Amino acid sequence: MKTLGKIIVGILVCLVLALLVLRVTGLEPKDRRPGLWLKGDLVTTPVTDWSFTDKVRNVELQTRTWYLLPHSVRINCVAYNGQLYLSTVNPPGIESPHVWNVNVARDPHVRLKIGNQLYDRALSYVTDPAEKAAVLQARFKKYPQLSTDKNTSVAANARASVYHVLDN
User: Fold this and answer.
1) 8-state DSSP, 83
2) Which tens digits make up the pLDDT trace of 48-66?
3) Which of 21, 32, 55, 155 would you label with 89, given CA atoms 20 to 30 Å apart?
4) Half-sphere exposure of 42 (CA within 13 A, CB side)
5) How many structural domains is the chain composed of?
6) CATH number at residue 70
């Protein structure tokens, strides 16, 4: 029984050391691979106009998981009326939400990385159909390659989720 205890303690020590190394290095997302912690310079002042993100292809989003490790991904963003929005679209027939959507539904506090700047914010799910449609139209203009047809950025039977980025 003592040997089993030593093995368990050894495994736990290795896990803690691995997490410490990952915390220092960050392990940010790359391409389509998710990551853990985002590293950069924290911006604490409010942002009144997010239109500077029009020139940014992707942002990195860090959410909080139920098992206490962060989950970060690269996603696109859209500035609409000076406000920042994040969206996700599940193609027709795919009903499973992205991991970050599930995390945000449980805890809306997130960290965004734009360039080397970090922004601690909260996300609010957009329920207003007019606002959602306007943001998705802005998304189409910014990312025309994501469109399935020339009139909209979302197929008629696809499921789109839109989140408004708010100050904490």
Assistant:
1) E
2) 999 999 999 999 999 999 9
3) 55
4) 5
5) 1
6) 2.30.110.10
